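hey can u check if this looks right to u? its 367 residues, i copy pasted from the old doc so theres a chance i mangled smth
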Amino acid sequence: MLKRARQKGILLIGLLTVAISITACGNNGGTPNNSGASNAPNLNSAAEASPAADTGSKDEPLVVYLNDFDEIIKPMFEEATGYKLELVSGNGAEIASRIEAEKGNPHWDVVWMDAMPTIDQMGKNGQLLEGWSPSNVDQLTDFAKAFVPENKTYYPTGAHAASVIVYNTKAFDANTAPKTWADLADPKFKGVVGMADPAVAAPAFPFVAWFFQTQGMDGGKSFFDGLLKNDLHVYPKNPNVAKALTGGEIKAAALQESNAYALKNAGEPIEIIWPEEGAPASVRVAAIQKNTKHADAAKAFVEFILDPKTQQALIDNGEESYFEASANGVTEKSDRAANAKLVVAEAAWAGEHEGEIKQWFADKAVK
């Protein structure tokens, strides 16, 4: 039985009162100011792709659309660079819908979200700044460098497990719990497994996309059809899945890793399994709107979140703090599994098939 709820709305995040001091790459240690001229990173743009200069007022904020880290990134960036920042936060579907609705007149300067396939398609459709390389791009790990597209329209800032297997220890033990993705379709787990909706939750689509790419479209449909026939519960977002798991509505789940570890750290009776075949990953990327009037500030923001010190602060203090950093020299959470194997659906393939896959899930929901 397919269960889902709907959430609507976009939250406009206001000023935060807590300042977190961090120095961005290229900061000369001077006192921040609103122009950002004295301590913004050294920015180099591609001659053909980059706007000639900022045409907006220096007092205007840089507008960033994002789906996580809104509770921490604003004071960090403003303190480090002197640029003003305005955040618009929502779930993956909300942000994507807003960007699409504003396609003829974008209100955003930067999008930073774990929706690499969607953003890859935006780059192919001419919506993003092309050909610019951040000055600190060489600090990326080899794993992260593989995700930088040829047209250089976006850059990865980290990857996390879109889902790991989580089970309630009051219902199962290490011997009886599901251990592989295929186990979730086993009749003995009928009606007790949940996951997030790939049409709503940003990490959920990269999760299902990996199965569709590796098994083929027909194989992916067969796999998830087996789960749905096993009475899979589908919830709008991962926090809804977590609540259902601890509340007893379900006993096992495919759950995003930060949500899973949050339950574990809160003392909830759950255990986390990283399947040997790997956990499909959601890669968080940052991209700049092609015709932004705040190109310097936008580039400063991308370089700031690629900086190892920034990524370390996100791991140390962020709510979505369990992830594999894209920059070298960053220490992950000590309790994150040593065997945390991430597998990633190819962005271009997933982006090209996103509509078809999401429509398939929507059709199943109707049934």
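The chain is about 30% helix and 15% strand.
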